[in-house]
Amino acid sequence: MPDAALLETRGLKRHFAVRGLLNRRIGTLRALDGVDLAVEAGEVLGIVGESGCGKSTLGKTIMGIHQPTEGEVRFAGVRVAAPGHPRPKSLRARLQYVYQDPGASLDPSWTLRRSMHEPLVIHTDLSRGQREERIREIIAAVGLPVTHLDLYPHEISGGQQRRIGLARILCLGPRLVILDEPTSGLDVSVQAAVLALFRELRERFGLTYLFISHDLAVVRSMCDRVAVMYLGRVVEIAPAAELFAAPRHPYTRALLAAAPRIGGPRVTENFTLQGEPPDPSEIPAGCRFRGRCPLAAPVCAEEPALDFTGPHGAACWRWREAARLPSAASSS
Known about the structure:
Blueprint: E1 5-19, E2 25-40, E3 44-48, H1 55-63, E4 70-75, E5 78-81, E6 95-98, H2 112-123, H3 128-141, H4 158-170, E7 176-180, H5 188-205, E8 208-212, H6 216-222, E9 225-230, E10 233-239, H7 240-245, H8 250-257, H9 267-270, E11 307-309, E12 312-314, H10 319-323, H11 328-331
Parallel strand pairs: 3-8, 3-9, 6-7, 7-8
Antiparallel strand pairs: 1-2, 1-4, 4-5, 9-10, 10-12, 11-12
Helix pairs in contact: 2-3, 2-4, 3-4, 4-5
Pfam family, one: ABC_tran
Family: Belongs to the ABC transporter superfamily.
Domain ABC transporter: 7-256
């Protein structure tokens, strides 16, 4: 991991109890099962994978919404999350989370002005006049007119709600922002405007992003590096351009083959991934992808660690064989 990492996770696990009749515990769902990541200041790290792979759980555990079962989270060198370890209040404003549906975090009975004031009242000692001045500055920065502050959440569009969600956290001066599916449900034109806003705000405020998304095209255009998750673990991580051009893990290759491209071959021609991921409460021993992998071999009965060459790592015993196969990117 980089020595100057702004954010680090070390052996991070988050398990949930599976309960049956009379609320008895009958199993454990391993949503996160040992995640080591480092995010450098100023970069955008993308997190991708199938639904249920642990992307959002990772973001919420880093943020403190979920407490880790094992491992720890460090922010700017300070431990901010670990089992039984309270989160330092002084760092809460510096690490912020933007939900997939920002409208759900806005009180429908409050004007946008009141919603904007709320985090400043909680986290700062600013006077009302000082809060209002900062709110007006940030509202302008996210491209909304000041007159919108007198509206209610139902009176603005989904794209504008995302801008308000960003404005609420930018008022606190965060260093790292976790974006959870920030463009889902948006029209393509609105999506482009929101992505352009993310880039502009990153430069203007010196932000670092953890960018959680299932949209590979968006991740490719926005992120400096990409981590691919499968069943609670990172199975590949690399600079974005390298990962999309030369994926190493068979699962990553299958994800890229499933992404349709204008002028490219039909998805059904390249897509070879079969079956569904195993139940996360009954993860098989060894490589957790081997039951769906076309390159599975006896060695895969042992779970692989991330094998790095330079900045590119893959948790696969046979990634060299996989890398020699023609990729979805090269066939388009």
